[in-house]
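Protocol step 4 of 6: structure prediction from sequence.
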Amino acid sequence: MTSTAQPAGTEGRKAQPDHLGHVIFITAAAAMGGFLFGYDSSVINGAVEAIRDRYDVGSAGLAQVVAIALIGSAIGAAAAGRLADRIGRIRVMQIAALLFTVSAVGSALPFAIWDLAIWRIIGGFGIGMASVIGPAYIAEVAPPAYRGRLGSFQQGAIVIGIAISQLVNWGILNLAGGDQRGELAGLEAWQWMLGVMVVPAVLYGLLSFAIPESPRFLISAGRRDRAKEVLAEVEGQNVDLELRVNEIEHAMRSEHKSTFKDLLGGKAGFLPIVWIGIGLSVFQQLVGINVAFYYSSTLWQSVGINPQSSFFYSFTTSIINIIGTVIAMVFVDKIGRRPLALIGSAGMAVALALEAWAFAAKTTGGTLPHAQGVVALIAAHGFVLFFALSWGVVVWVFLGEMFPNKIRAAALGVAASAQWIANWAITASFPSLSDWNLSGTYVIYMIFALLSIPFVLKFVKETKGKALEEMG
């Protein structure tokens, strides 16, 4: 499932002003999947310690409960494209909304650790589907002249979802008197944290009934008249609708549907460009970014910060993530992808080194010395900022631009799968690594941040300002 290619001359078309507001509504509704992607990915941050205490589970078992959603995400992402081509983009959104809803209710009312893990996997299916269907749908309904800006709604929604999940967790914790297992209306605080996601999940499902099916899918299903109606909705009545339908049909017929075999041929199995894409995806995760979103509350509590403050710092980190993402969106086309990646790598390496130094200090009564505590807090926010303004956005831009047309879809799938696997590896290993040596764990992440610099300098070519057809 790919976005519609546009023949020459269509890029200058703009939606009529009275239609643009409707297009923005459609885009925002689709981007609710991105919001839930971010929300469901990070909401577990607030429940980790309560789950450990409630079910008396060790670090290794706890890590699997947190990380298992990523297995579901990989499966959901792999299935979403083909499913959307068979039943439509809107139906896939509705399935994802149902999965998010079921996961939220089940996660809030588990009777054992193993069924909590099952609900987490189900939520992961929704995350994976939302990660694919949102960007694809937006690309297919957005007028060409606005596609880049509207496409950024998905990434914006993800980081806002992360921030809102942390704000909700902090609010619930305060209502429970600072106790993650404190009782509220018959449930423990952590159960409410996981259950509140039912609200945006239901909203996502309702919004999916208020937006039109993708013109591309309608044409593939032989519903040309309905496709024209949708194109009129998003691009205006002044557009030659018959011509637009013919253009989309032509683009679909001329597309090369890449397969896994197309990626083979290099000395190491894959073509060199595919390995570079895999490298970008893996480095994005091996610097340990998701530790900040899945375990930050646990991390701060482990060095003596009280739960309410630790939850608040998780929220402020999420705000920094939003700020960094906006910076990246502003500068990615101005200074280029490679410079941003290199700036981010250097900044992350320094921040991670400072965190490693701070966590190496001996604690007194389980609390870091004041100076080290301040440095750790500032460095943690700095790490997220440098990641967000660089690798958080740049990797996705690179992956969308760097592959030749004939292998783009298949290569993107392989790179995205590598990213989910690396994400799982970091998420599943952190609790055990931190039990072994918290400072040493951050040294490992710092080494990966440093290694990403020569990787970018030697292997990654700048894609700024180049047409997709130039990638060879």
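Step 5 (inspection) to follow. Residues 408-459 form the longest helix (52 residues).
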